[in-house]
Amino acid sequence: MKNKLSPFLFIVILILFIVAFAVSRYYSIDNKPFPQRKSQASNLLSMNEAVVSTDSNYIEDDSTAIFYITTGARNVGLYTLAEDSSNNVIQFLSGEPVYSTTSPIQYRGTDIPSEETRKLIPDDPAHLSLTARLDDREAQYLQLAQISVNATHYYFRQIRCNDVPVYGSYINLHVGEDTEVYSISGALLKTDSECIAQISEEQAHEIALDTLKRDVQGAGSYNVRASEQSIINLNLIGESEDNTNYFTQMITTCADEDICRIYFVDLVSGTVVYDFQLSSGAVDRRVTSDGGVSRTEGQGPVSDQEINEAYDILGDIFNYFNTTHGRDGLDGSGGQVWTYIKQCYEPNASWNGQRISVCSGLVANDVVAHEYQHGVTEYSVQRGIGLQGGNESGALDEGLSDITGYALDSGDWTMGETTTIGAIRDMSNPPSKGHPDRMYSARYYCGAEDDGGVHVNNGVVAKAFYLMVVGGTFPDASANIGQCQINPVGKDKALLIFYRALVTYLKSKTAANYADMYEAANQACSDLYGATSSECINTKSAMQAVQMDMQEKGRIQGPKCWGKAEQRVTCDGSTPPSGQPSPTGFTQPTPTGVRPTAIPSLTLTPTPLPFKKTTKLKSIVSAPTFTNSEVTTEYDGSLFKLTSKLNFSLMTLNINEPIGDAVEIPIHGELLGPNVVNTGRFVIDEAGNITNRFSTSKDLRNYYAYQVVVEAEVTDVGADLPILLADLSPENPELPIDSELVWLDITVRMQGISQKPRFADAILVRVGITGGSLADTKYLYVPFISDNQGLWRGRAALDIPEDDSYCLLIKPQRHTQRKFCDNNPQESSPGEYKPEEENIFLKKGMNTLDFRNVTQLAGDLPMPKQDGVVNSRDILRVRRSLNSVYIEDLAIADLNNDGVVNGSDDAQVVYTLGIRTDE
């Protein structure tokens, strides 16, 4: 009995200890219920209108209110408290403080206020719950900077139905010297909610998991990591103008514990009303490799020098946060990051949503630091969410991570410059990498791809930080919107300002945009150096120069996206220019599939000429398993014959039948031309030969490509998978070309491929012809083969008239479509090319078209079908395949054909999103 009772007593004692700790923690922040009656201290509740900063604003409609009211200085108060304590703050809020609509506050509502004063908090104070309290007198990063700040910060969230939190809601109240409330910000519902569920929590989980399976296809496992009830109002978080208060289950789901998304499932209708991808940081510092070598905290150097290097970089990052900001790990309580070293054909690095993965041959401090900051941001803003991963809040998250990357690699302003993929972002000149450097930039992205451009629009805050550090004149005079002259604040002060802005003034603001960041950084600088200091004047000017002050609270996209006219930069002091720019959208190409289903007929010479030709089968997949395979096609005047022989490993084919008589295997051949001709399955004979034989009386000389396809039943992607490709088009001197046709000899360059790939040296490209006298665009699928310089060449023929006003559309598998209207086109800047009017001259016979000076951007992945655009799903598909050398993953996600899906492929998709030139 004693042996059975002891564990039970231990568990009971442990539970009691946890409960006691939770209760003590609960009351340590004075989380007591609000009084149900108004406080008697009504003489303290009128705002001091004379001290309100002109940066203050109050935006409301019938259902929501979003506001930021500040004096800008800690020693000047909007209201005065009896004392600085949680109890007094609660009493203050329950006393229903008021403000005047005629004060300097920028007021925007659905109607003009009819009364002189209004309630500051447009809800019953009993619906506010205190979640955290910070005391600057205890902040180690201020002590390390030898700056004394006397302020306390209180963070509340709104609840409905007794204890259901309202997602995205907050009241942040900041108390400075002499118990002065110097700043209050909030995002609140004004309407009540019904919390009557029609579906169970378990049903909501099933709906979320089913949605995750559609969003992230082919993962090995799908699970629920966290779940809680939540009220969500899409207007409150700026997602739409829908003012419905949805009673939802907020469910964090993960695929393979690798890619995580949060889904809000309506507990009434069962629909997903909102979702976004979650970026989170691991909390266990260790470095491991797929070779089994590892090094954990405190362990001495190991035999793998790359593991030691990664270990040291993580130590540098930890020490930076610890010595500069007094922060003990990601969560401030010792949490650290896990880095995983992989074996790859070429060194690359990536972030897979849960950990940092680094290929053998590359460990970079700015890349690792960028990912580490994602964890810091999550714990600083809200555990489990951080800055929600979409639109401008996600872009702000990415920008803050780049800033930390710079902190650890301050010798330059680029990210990833030491990697094999090169620099993917430039904080000093974001447009050089396709990113905007101000809110009204033509590169500011207003579409839905990449979760609203999180890897594009981060250029705005990056440029602001750059201007803070080094100073300069911005924007360029050619923009004709005025200029700001910024004197340098310096690296250390700029980093401290942004860190305080994050941990103090962005806390609890999960949907923060650039307006929130503008307010947070200005207030943080005022706290540190004084509002009228040179540091704060130039910090403010830097953010005004990139037009962050022109953003509006509660908006998930920049002002140009919702049609607000561009104004001259504030610090220039000039009047706004006339005219209003139109919102810029994202031009989406017509979706295309992985493989052709119908191609316009090509007309060949009517005289059937006998021929016989043997062509090497080139690998579409970057794996060393396909060698010496070939296809022979011949026509004897009466029969067209095809014989294809394969020589590769059958390890991945899952063939269980014994090889005796000829056995069919789930691989077949296809001829591509006016349509697709299935040439039947391959068979294995007694001698082990793998052969596809086909014959027909039809003249198939106008079928110019042949591919070998693994059938869907043995793939993990739920679709047929082409693996080998042969170019059957005639080449001199083997066969003369038909001079009555327009022949195309096209050369293109693929992003990320600078030399002949090691294995995958073939790709199927859709070529379209438009313009001239053609009523409709003609399409055909053409095999392109790589040369030793990594250039790709394909040949095809069309029966079209000679003309001098054609354009060509080039759409490779896994790449975006480019439109070419010049014989020798040139990019205007890296990755950017805009075609002029149709002016390609095509004549009968051979036409040589050299498009090598314009890169075909990678990223439109087959999953299993391409959708014609590059978006977050393409990024997810790459990241789900990181480290993979499986055929299915290589065929879909190995964009640079180096034999592994890695950080290089991930960076190419991100880069393409930045360029945004899909046509």
Number of domains: 4
Instruction: Count up the helices.
Output: 15
Strand tally: 41
Structural class estimated from helices and strands = alpha+beta
Q: Per DSSP, what share of the residues sits in E-state strands of 2 or more residues?
A: 25-35%
The largest sheet, given as strand count, sense and whether it forms a barrel, is: 9 strands, mixed
What name is given to the CATH topology of the largest domain?
Immunoglobulin-like
Helix content: 10-25%
In round numbers, the mean pLDDT is: 79
Shape: elongated
State the separation between the terminal residues, measured CA to CA.
Answer: 76 Å
CATH architecture of the largest domain: Sandwich
| Quaternary class | single chain
Poorly predicted regions: 1-33, 36-43, 280-285, 344-353, 573-608, 649-660, 732-736
The whole-angstrom Rg is 31 Å
CATH domain class name of the largest domain: Mainly Beta
Protein name: Dockerin domain-containing protein
GO molecular function: hydrolase activity, hydrolyzing O-glycosyl compounds; metal ion binding; metalloendopeptidase activity
InterPro entries: Dockerin_1_rpt, Dockerin_dom, Dockerin_dom_sf, FTP_domain, Peptidase_M4/M1_CTD_sf, Peptidase_M4_C_domain, Peptidase_M4_domain, Zinc_Metalloprotease_M4
Pfam family, one: FTP
Written description of the protein model:
- With 919 residues, the protein is of the alpha+beta class.
- The chain has four domains: 31-189, no CATH class; 201-278, Nuclear Transport Factor 2, Chain: A (Roll), CATH 3.10.450; 286-296 and 309-572, Neutral Protease Domain 2 (Neutral Protease, domain 2); 611-915, Immunoglobulin-like.
- Helix content is 22%, strand content 27%.
- It contains 15 helices and 41 strands.
- Strands 1, 2, 3, 5, 7, 8, 9, 10 and 11 form a nine-stranded mixed beta sheet that branches. Strands 25-27-28-31-30-29-32-33-26 form a nine-stranded antiparallel beta sheet. Strands 34, 35, 36, 37, 38, 39, 40 and 41 form an eight-stranded mixed beta sheet that branches.
- Helix 9 (459-470) packs antiparallel against helix 12 (534-545) and helix 13 (872-880) runs antiparallel to helix 15.
- It is elongated.
- Mean pLDDT is 79; it is low at 1-33, 36-43, 280-285, 344-353, 573-608, 649-660 and 732-736.
